[in-house]
Amino acid sequence: MPSKTPSHARAASGEQSWNAAGYEENARFVSDLGADILSWLDPKPGERVLDIGCGDGALTAKIAAHGASVLGIDTSAALLAAAKARGLDVRAMSGEAIDLPREFDAVFSNAALHWMTRAEDVIQGVTRVLKPGGRFVAEFGGFGNVAAIVTALRSAARLYQGNAALAHPWYFPSPRAYEGLLYKNGLMCERIELMPRPTPLPTGIEGWLATFRKPFFDQFEGKVRDAALAHAVELLRPSLRDEDGRWWADYVRLRVAARLLPR
Question: Per the database record, which ranges form the Methyltransferase type domain (predicted)?
Answer without folding.
Answer: 50-137
